Amino acid sequence: MQQLKNKVAVITGGNSGIGKATAQLFAEEGAQVIITGRRDDVVDQAVADIGHGAIGLVGDVADLAHHQKLADLVKNRFGRLDVYMANAGIINLTTSDKVTPDEYDRHFATNTRGVFFGVQAVAPLIRDGGSIIVTSSLAATKILPDHTVYAGSKAAVAAFARNWAVELKPRKIRVNILSPGPVETAILGKLGVSEADSPAFERHMASLIPVGRMGLPEELARAALFLASEAGSFVNGIELHVDGGMTLA
């Protein structure tokens, strides 16, 4: 039985990594999926890979006009929304003494401001009893080297989510936080880890995780499906750490 049959789901940053894996799983589970991303070619390829009638919208979550465009698309095409996953984000690891104002602003514009105003724009379209998932990070609660600005931006969205869970109580909209640990995605390259260095980096990360390996995007997608579907119907306001136990290490 498809767990999201006839549901409409939006996943920001659904063109790669955890977002794309989640979009693929949601589509397989019967949802009409809409993904967003910043690059036309990557969004187009992701839509083709996801199939099942997926729709792509190109735009930057740091641009507030993008959220209104997304809300208009959902309203005009479907009239309502069942699941919204605020997943788009950026990361650049830097010690605090080297963080520039521009770098700080970029993190908070995308990871924090983009989440807040994205939810603000689509919340009126989410059906009563729907679900919002906010992607935070292990870094929001566990101190990791060079993560200060990124961690702050992700801690803020977790606080947003807990407040929304209470604010949206009259509409029975559940709001939960998905906090991944290290996951094997293309973002490793964006962190400056070369292809040659990736095996050593992954071995080091695996040594820090009790289950002995990095996570897979598909594992995060299954956790998101739990939060979005009836399987998680009595789960609200939690922070679900999907990190192989790294929180404990």
CATH architecture: 3-Layer(aba) Sandwich
C-alpha-based Rg, rounded: 17 Å
How would the global form be characterised? globular
Spatial strand order of the main sheet: 3-2-1-4-5-6-7
Distance between the termini: 37 Å
Question: Which helices and strands occur, and which strands form pairs?
Answer:
Elements: E1 8-12, H1 17-28, E2 32-37, H2 40-50, E3 55-58, H3 64-77, E4 81-86, H4 101-122, E5 126-135, H5 148-167, E6 174-180, H6 187-190, H7 198-207, H8 217-228, E7 239-242
Parallel strand pairs: 1-2, 1-4, 2-3, 4-5, 5-6, 6-7
Helix pairs in contact: 1-8, 3-4, 4-5
For this entry, give a set of tags.
249 residues, Rossmann fold, alpha/beta, 7-stranded parallel beta sheet, globular, 7 strands
Describe the protein.
The protein has 249 residues and is an alpha/beta fold. It has a single domain (8-243), classed as NAD(P)-binding Rossmann-like Domain (Rossmann fold, 3-Layer(aba) Sandwich). It contains 8 helices and 7 strands, in the order βαβαβαβαβαβαααβ. The protein has helices at residues 17-28, 40-50, 64-77, 101-122, 148-167, 187-190, 198-207, 217-228, and strands at residues 8-12, 32-37, 55-58, 81-86, 126-135, 174-180, 239-242. A 7-stranded parallel sheet has the order 3-2-1-4-5-6-7, with helices on both faces. Strand 2, helix 2 and strand 3 form a beta-alpha-beta unit. The longest helix is centred in the middle third of the chain and has 22 residues, at 101-122. The protein is globular.
